[in-house]
């Protein structure tokens, strides 16, 4: 395997909710077309960190960021950054499946329509099919595209949200505990899907489930109380961690 | 002295509790009782007109009670015309204001705007009618070059203004009930704030917005004083768009204007109550439609 490229480089990132620091001095490289998992106990800042990567924290009042997040070498927190363009490149899948209360078709075609990616109906149909195939959902919904998205099962809804995210052809997909609301079978489907998405996308996934990180990711970062304790290839984190805290956490003695 | 077990099985009879409970119950039932009595009264006084006056006359196009013409169509059409025009004006204004207050305005401005909207609802209708008569009517006359300023359009403007607080606050609640996760999903895809509002938030709140419009309409169709003061009160059939700038007469204004002059128990008297029944049915249907909208929303999975 050739040496992977760095897609995102985070340098010395601090994050505050009001005056309360939530992240301190985070520096981490995210490799292109790899799956990077972020683990750690609840409230350790891993989701907050994830939302820093596409500036979704901007939507929360009273938050503040220091440091740099370089996407292909360009700081996304630099003055004059177009946040809308940034989020086009860095998509997101949320903890609870959140399809719009519209049809399956409208959900997937929302992004392409809003961003002007489709010239006509045929383009829209093509993008929808491609995205749903990409999210391993096409065979299940191809005959019910006009049905309400909320009528799908939760696992299907989450894959629909993934299809909706890849319909705008992002470069990076952020996943915030995408399986926490799902049953084991739906979880497995999402994990398999992540492996196939890795061919085209850089994936960063937050998970509270260590087995999931061990099974599904290439790199793992371990967060503890707002700090990144250790970042290494997944295998190293789970078999020969360099920090004692990491070892205690992954073996279930801390956290 | 009773033992502990006995007191818990057989609670002591307490006089004050009984009196309070009984009076609350009586008050609660009396509310229902009054509504039923009013409805009964309306029926008793109004229903006779349906056999005293032939239906062809009653649903004719001429309302000249002094000459035996009791055609209620001009009044029904007048009410409908004024109300619909008012809603057409108030709907975009109200929904846009709600969107602004809920989605766009910074917090401090929202804190000012919300109570302002509620104050708007508290302005007495006669004051608005006066304002309509003195300010709006002359303006309408000059701008649209109408023979008189007391027109359907002037009445609709005043009514729109009166139904705005209802529409704004109910629509705002509906927008507020749209979960943040929908907004997040749209924003995370690179949609702009306006795209998020128009293509995700407003459609997700549409049943609530429909309810807001229904309630605003219910408010508008029952309004009397302001309408009587600014619509000119000519009972003519408003059949073309030009009637927008002509006087009209609503059902409510007719009842209010003529009730003082009729002989109690006469045909005219019964006819006015007959109009009251028709009005009641219309508002009932509108409120029912609003209630159905809420019901549908709940069935679809509530305020997700």
Q: Strand arrangement, largest sheet of chain A? A: 6-7-8-3-9-10
In the CATH hierarchy, the architecture of the domain at 6-98 and 170-250 in chain A is 3-Layer(aba) Sandwich
Number of strands of chain B: 2
Alpha plus pi helix count of chain B:
14
CATH topology category name of chain B? MetI-like fold
Structural class of chain A: alpha/beta
Write the CATH homologous superfamily of the domain at 6-98 and 170-250 in chain A. Answer: P-loop containing nucleotide triphosphate hydrolases
Largest interface: A-B, 29 and 22 residues
Task: Give, in order, the helices and strands of chain B.
Answer: HHHHEEHHHHHHHHHH
Please state roughly what percent of the residues of chain B sit in beta strands, choosing from under 5%, 5-15%, 15-25%, 25-35%, 35-45% or over 45%. under 5%
User: Which ranges of chain B are low-confidence, i.e. pLDDT below 50, for 5 or more consecutive residues?
Assistant: none
Biggest β-sheet strands, sense, barrel of chain B: 2 strands, antiparallel
CATH superfamily of chain B: MetI-like
Distance from N terminus to C terminus of chain A (CA atoms, Å) equals 35 Å
Q: Over the alpha carbons, how many angstroms does the gyration radius of chain A reach? A: 18 Å
**Helix content, binned percent of chain A:** 25-40%
Summarize the structure.
The complex is a heterodimer of chains A (255) and B (304). By secondary structure, chain A is of the alpha/beta class.
Give a description of the structure.
The complex is a heterodimer of chains A (255) and B (304). The model of chain A has no long low-confidence stretch (mean pLDDT 92). In chain A, the strands form two sheets. Chain A has a six-stranded mixed beta sheet, with helices on both faces. A four-stranded antiparallel beta sheet of chain A has the order 2-1-4-5, with helices on one face. Chain A has a domain at 6-98 and 170-250: P-loop containing nucleotide triphosphate hydrolases (Rossmann fold), CATH 3.40.50.300. Chain A is of the alpha/beta class. Chain A is built from ten helices and ten strands. In chain A, a hairpin with a 2-residue loop joins β9 (219-224) and β10. In chain A, α3 (104-115) crosses α4 (121-134) and α4 packs across α6. Chain B has 304 residues and is an all-alpha fold. Chain B has one domain (52-299): MetI-like fold. Helices cover 73% and strands 1% of the residues of chain B. Chain B has helices spanning 4-9, 15-46, 49-52, 55-58, 73-104, 107-121, 125-143, 152-176, 180-188, 193-204, 206-222, 225-230, 251-258, 267-299, and strands at 63-64, 69-70. Chain B has a two-stranded antiparallel sheet. In chain B, a hairpin with a 4-residue loop joins β1 (63-64) and β2. In chain B, α2 packs across α14 (267-299), α5 packs parallel to α8 and α13 (251-258) runs antiparallel to α14 (267-299). The relative contact order of chain B is 0.14. The model of chain B has no long low-confidence stretch (mean pLDDT 88). The interface between A and B is medium-sized, with 29 and 22 residues.
């Amino acid at each position: 395997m050739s040496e992977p490229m760095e897609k995102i480089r985070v340098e010395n990132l601090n994050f505050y909710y009001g005056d309360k620091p939530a992240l301190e001095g985070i520096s981490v490289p995210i490799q292109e077309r790899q799956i990077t998992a972020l683990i750690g106990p609840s409230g350790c800042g891993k989701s907050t960190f994830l939302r820093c990567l596409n500036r979704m924290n901007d939507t929360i009042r009273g938050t503040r960021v220091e440091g740099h997040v370089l996407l292909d070498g360009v700081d996304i927190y630099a003055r004059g950054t177009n946040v809308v363009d940034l989020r086009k490149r860095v998509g997101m899948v949320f903890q609870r499946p959140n399809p719009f209360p519209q049809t399956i078709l409208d959900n997937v075609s929302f992004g392409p329509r809003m961003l002007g990616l489709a010239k006509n109906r045929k383009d829209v149909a093509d993008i929808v099919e491609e995205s749903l195939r990409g999210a391993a959902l096409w065979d299940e919904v191809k005959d019910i595209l006009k049905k309400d998205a909320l009528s799908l099962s939760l696992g299907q809804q989450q894959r629909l949200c993934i299809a909706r995210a890849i319909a705008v052809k992002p470069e990076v997909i952020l996943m915030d505990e995408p399986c926490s609301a799902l049953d084991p079978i739906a979880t497995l489907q999402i994990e398999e899907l992540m492996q196939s998405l890795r061919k085209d996308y850089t994936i960063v996934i937050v998970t509270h489930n260590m087995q999931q990180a061990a099974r599904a990711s290439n790199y793992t970062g371990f967060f503890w109380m707002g700090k990144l304790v250790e970042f290494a290839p997944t295998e190293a984190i789970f078999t020969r961690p360099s920090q004692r805290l990491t070892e205690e956490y992954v073996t279930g003695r801390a956290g | 002295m009773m033992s502990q077990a006995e007191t818990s099985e057989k609670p002591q009879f307490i006089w004050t509790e009984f009196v309070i409970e009984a009076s609350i119950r009586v008050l609660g039932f009396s509310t229902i009782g009054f509504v039923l009595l009013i409805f009964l009264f309306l029926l008793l006084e109004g229903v006779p007109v349906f056999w005293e006056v032939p239906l062809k006359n009653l649903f004719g196009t001429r309302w000249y009670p002094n000459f035996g013409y009791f055609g209620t169509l001009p009044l029904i059409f007048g009410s409908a015309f004024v109300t619909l025009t008012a809603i057409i004006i108030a709907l975009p204004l109200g929904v846009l204001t709600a969107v602004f207050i809920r989605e766009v305005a910074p917090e401090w401005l929202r804190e000012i705007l919300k109570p302002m909207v509620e104050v708007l609802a508290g302005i007495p209708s006669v004051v608005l009618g006066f304002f309509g008569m003195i300010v709006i009517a002359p303006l309408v006359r000059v701008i649209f070059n109408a023979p008189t300023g007391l027109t359907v359009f002037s009445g609709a403007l005043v009514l729109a203004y009166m139904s705005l607080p209802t529409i704004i606050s109910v629509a705002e609640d509906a927008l507020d009930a749209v979960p943040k996760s929908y907004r997040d999903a749209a924003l995370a895809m690179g949609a702009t704030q306006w795209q998020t509002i128009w293509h995700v938030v407003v459609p997700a709140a549409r049943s609530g917005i429909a309810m807001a419009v229904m309630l605003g309409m219910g408010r508008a169709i029952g309004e009397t004083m302001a309408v009587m003061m600014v619509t000119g009160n000519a009972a003519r059939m408003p059949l073309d768009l030009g009637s927008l700038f002509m006087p009209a007469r609503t059902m409510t204004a007719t009842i209010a204007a003529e009730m003082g002059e009729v002989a109690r128990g006469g045909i005219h008297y019964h006819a006015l109550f007959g109009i009251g029944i028709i009005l009641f049915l219309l508002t009932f249907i509108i409120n029912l439609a609003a209630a159905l909208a809420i019901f549908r929303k709940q069935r679809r999975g509530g305020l997700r």
